[in-house]
């Protein structure tokens, strides 16, 4: 492990990196938000199907 070489390459990458523009940030935020909603909706659908297949809620309303 060549520590000076690693540090040099890290510094080079950090110097090349820039902050995203507002447009880029909004696009990434929309895509990430859509992914989160998709996973949540998929979990809701799976939970609903499992609830229907097992005969509904347990007596007393508990899990």
UniProtKB/TrEMBL annotation:
A GO term from the CC aspect: plasma membrane
GO molecular function: protein transmembrane transporter activity
Membrane-crossing segments per the record: 31-53
Alphabetically ordered keywords of this record: Cell membrane, Membrane, Protein transport, Translocation, Transmembrane, Transmembrane helix, Transport
Membrane topology: Single-pass membrane protein
Entry annotated with the keyword Cell inner membrane: no
Subcellular location: Cell membrane; Endomembrane system
BP-aspect Gene Ontology terms: intracellular protein transmembrane transport; protein secretion; protein targeting
Main localization (coarse): membrane
Assembly and interaction partners: Component of the Sec protein translocase complex. Heterotrimer consisting of SecY (alpha), SecG (beta) and SecE (gamma) subunits. The heterotrimers can form oligomers, although 1 heterotrimer is thought to be able to translocate proteins. Interacts with the ribosome. May interact with SecDF, and other proteins may be involved.
Task performed by this protein: Essential subunit of the Sec protein translocation channel SecYEG. Clamps together the 2 halves of SecY. May contact the channel plug during translocation.
Family according to the record: Belongs to the SecE/SEC61-gamma family.
Protein name, entry field: Protein translocase subunit SecE
Organism: Natrarchaeobaculum aegyptiacum
């Amino acid at each position: 492990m060549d520590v000076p070489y690693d540090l040099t390459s890290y510094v080079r990458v950090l110097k090349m990196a820039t902050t995203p523009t507002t447009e880029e940030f909004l696009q990434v935020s929309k895509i990430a938000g859509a992914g989160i909603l998709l996973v949540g909706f998929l979990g809701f659908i799976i939970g609903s199907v499992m609830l229907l297949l097992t005969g509904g809620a347990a007596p007393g309303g508990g899990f």
